[in-house]
Every structure is written in structure tokens, then in C-alpha cells.
What we know:
mainly alpha, about 80% helix, globular
Amino acid sequence: MDRHYEGAWAYSRFLTRGAAEAEDLVHEAFLLAFDRLAAGEEFAGDAGAWVRGTLRNLVKAWWREKRRLPRDVVQHLATLVERADEAPSLASRQELQAALDHCLGLLSAEDRELVARRYERGLRITEIAAELRRNAATVRVQLFRIRQALKLCVEGQLARGMGT
């Protein structure tokens, strides 16, 4: 399990966007793994895959219970969590990060600030709207358009092999 801890923590951190929450969920997943081993049960395949699957389920529950998000948002997050399990290799993740950094650099200062408020600071759309004295629907649409532009840019960067 030692060799899976760092990857499990990074996976959980990615899914929860918070170090404290990630740590708690990783510990819970490893406790379940140790309980399984103590009961004499073996892992059918890769223990790391089992831990990631367990984390995926724990994160789904965490989003529902701790964040009390609307059901449609929980479903969307569940889909993202499942996709994250199909994560690319470390080299591919590094290329992806380089492409994302490049594309973020192409955004206007206003768009970068909006992204920072939502994804770095973790503010809710209603909080951002209140800070900016805008309608929440307007902020939601702006963020949607920014995400779409980033997606197209990153895909273009990766297709050109310019992610690194």
C-alpha cells in the first residue's frame, strides 16, 4: 500500500480540491483496504485500482453529504470522477498540465481572475456574482464559455504536440 499512497492522495486531492478532505478520504480508503486484508480477502487485481475505485465511491458520498450540492451537480461530479479513473499516464498528465498552463496564459486578465475565483479559491458562483455585482446566471455562462475555450485550446495544443 505504501507505493499507492501518493497516487491515491493526488487522485483524491484532484477530486475534492481540498488537501484536508483528500487526506481524510485517502485514510478512509486505506482503512477499508487494511480491513479487507485483515479479513483474509485478496485484491482481485491491482491494489491501486481497488483503492482508486474505493476513493471514487467515497468522493461521491463526500460530495453528496458534505457539500449538499444539488442532485444534477452531484451527478455531473460523479461522471467526472469516473472519467478521472481513466486518467492518462504521468507523462500525459504533464503534457496536459503544460497545455492547460499555456491556454490559461492566453485568457484575458478578467477571465483568468474569474477562473481563479472559482477554481483556485473555490468560491461558489453566487459568491463570485455578489463580489462582482453581477447576475449569477451571467457568471455561470461566462465560466462555461471560458471552460469551452480552454477545452478547445488544450485539445489543440495536445493535438499539435505542443503541450510540453
